[in-house]
Every structure is written in structure tokens, then in C-alpha cells.
Amino acid sequence: MRFALTVFVLAAVAAATKPPPECAVCPKTLPPGVSEIAWTRVAADEDAGTMFCGYRGKERGNPKTLETFCSYYNNGTLIKNPGSLKACPKTVKVEKCKKQ
């Protein structure tokens, strides 16, 4: 019994001293890519160590709304994905994760 209590106390101390997890931070906007599109963030979702950042944009002279996304590992580096544009920054800042 004493051993189990000691293990429990040590586990609780280790959990309390563990630094809070960090998450990638989605930029509010993206720079124009190949064409001049004003991208605005419309979604951000952290899941299983990655951050999904969804964007909507309007291209000059095109009435249709365009959508794209960027995904990042929680260390702030871009996840290579053929569906994301060159406008996605290769790295973003990280900060303490916010509870969803």
C-alpha cells in the first residue's frame, strides 16, 4: 500500500511540473500567393499534435469565394500538403495551447 501511494505522489508531482503543451498559432491572414488574394482565417483547430488553419479569400476580379488551408505541427513547422498553397508560411509562432 505504501508503495502505491508513493508512486501516485511521484506521478502527481511529475504531472504538475510538466510544462504546458505548446500549439502552433494560425496567422490571422496569409500573404498573397501566386495571384493577389486577400486570405482571412476562418477556422483554427488543434488536434493530435497538429493545427489546422482554414482561410477564405477573394481574388481581384473574381466574384467567387476561394478557400484554402495550412496545417502545422505544434512545433510551428508547416506540414507539406498538396492541398495547401505557397502562401502558407513555412513556420509560425507557438504558444501555450488553449482549451477548445
From TrEMBL:
Q: Which UniProt keywords apply?
A: Signal
Top-level taxonomic group: Eukaryota
Signal peptide start and end residues: 1-16
Protein name (record) = Uncharacterized protein
Organism of this sequence: Mycena rosella
